[in-house]
Amino acid sequence: MNLENDRYQLSGGVDPLDLVAQYGCPLYIYDTAIMERQYKRIQSAFKVKRLKINYACKALSNINVLKFFNTLGSGLDTVSIQEVEMGLKVGFKKEDIIYTPNCVSIEEIEEATALGVRINIDNLSILEQFGQLHPNIPVCIRINPHIMAGGNSKISVGHIDSKFGISFHQMPLVKRIVESTGLAIEGLHMHTGSGIIDADVFLRGAEILLNVASDFENLDYIDFGSGFKVPYKEGDSATDIEELGTKISERFNDFCADYGRDLCLMFEPGKFLVSEAGYFLAKVNVIKQTTSTVFAGIDSGLNHLIRPMFYDAYHEITNISKPLTKKRFYTVVGYICETDTFGINRRISEINEGDILCIHNAGAYCFSMASNYNSRFRPAEVMIYNGQAHLVRERETMDDLLRNQVEMSFATAPTTPALAEK
């Protein structure tokens, strides 16, 4: 979002305030030009014979986002049977969808198997069950490299006590299962966390994964996961994807030469592709001053964007109604009956009731984690494509809130057995 002529603009000159006037607040906006830019950065960064980018759709699962990445040639990283079905529904080929669940039942894995997508298994129990049921269906194995990485303990998933993946120290057990069942292993996978800055973290994980890969003869691909960090404010650190691409490509190409054929290098970015493409707009309901704090209370809360409360995540906040006024300090809070604070003592252009605030980096894990807490409706979503705005999700109504509830009938004067006896 660029500031031009005292007004903020999105791709194609779209004015976000015009979108508020048309679709109301609160409102999510996604800019596909930024998604495409990020996708092409990864494509250009890695110089290998075979590269596959699988969009991690849990980050933002609107079907139009999925469709857009399909047009770019992306595959799809899924973690539930519902995401698999959505991917197939919008046109992804089954071989371009990889299903990487955690702690699901063998029955759900059977559903995904029946749909023909790639299966990624992350525990020994399911691996053994699957090998006995489907010894002729190739699978991928998720390895836990025992690396603590990521911007928050809740999004670090590759450490020794993580519930994700099979410890690389358990490879003898994996080999025993593979040999006993005749199971074919087509790929190896790891994912250490989200918000990783240091390329050396990826390289340490890569060494572990490639060392394991050398013990499997018929691999087709190796999936290095993702976790690339994006900037959340001016001057913020971020993954140098170009530097990482150079280092990983060199090491991967050397491995392929030793292995005897060109394997496919896979990544599964989510946040890197959509975070910066998203904007969340909310109206200021009230300015409230206490003895020490000036609150700007908006028409949203943790029901719509929970990351600051859940992860202590930082999101830049700007006043797009009056971007050039004198800056003052505000604590931006929501309307939920909880402590739902978006930012504390933020320096923002002077805010008045009725102004529209923009919460930036709202493309990843924002709407996808939204809820109906406090019986509030979830917002509308708009996508900017080729400079034009398109409504891609309508704002919820009371009908949506009540749709799956089943209403009972109650007697006007309830009785209990104890009362009846008296």
- Quick one: biggest sheet? 9 strands, mixed
- Cα-based radius of gyration, to the nearest Å: 24 Å
Q: CATH class of the largest domain, anyone?
A: Alpha Beta
Total separate domains: 2
Structural class: alpha/beta
Summed up, the helix count is 13
- General shape: globular
Low-pLDDT residue spans:
148-159
Question: SSE layout and pairings?
Answer:
Layout: E1 2-4, E2 7-9, H1 16-23, E3 27-31, H2 32-45, E4 51-56, H3 63-71, E5 75-78, H4 81-89, E6 97-99, H5 106-115, E7 118-121, H6 124-133, E8 139-144, E9 166-167, H7 171-181, E10 185-189, H8 199-213, E11 221-223, H9 241-259, E12 264-267, H10 271-274, E13 278-289, E14 294-298, H11 307-310, E15 317-319, E16 327-333, E17 341-349, E18 356-360, E19 380-385, E20 388-393, H12 398-402, H13 417-421
Parallel strand pairs: 3-19, 4-5, 4-12, 5-6, 6-7, 7-8, 8-9, 8-10, 10-11, 11-12, 14-16
Antiparallel strand pairs: 1-2, 3-13, 13-14, 13-18, 15-18, 16-17, 19-20
Helix pairs in contact: 2-9, 6-7, 8-9
Quick summary:
This protein has 422 residues and is of the alpha/beta class. The chain has helices at residues 16-23, 32-45, 63-71, 81-89, 106-115, 124-133, 171-181, 199-213, 241-259, 271-274, 307-310, 398-402, 417-421, and strands at 2-4, 7-9, 27-31, 51-56, 75-78, 97-99, 118-121, 139-144, 166-167, 185-189, 221-223, 264-267, 278-289, 294-298, 317-319, 327-333, 341-349, 356-360, 380-385, 388-393.
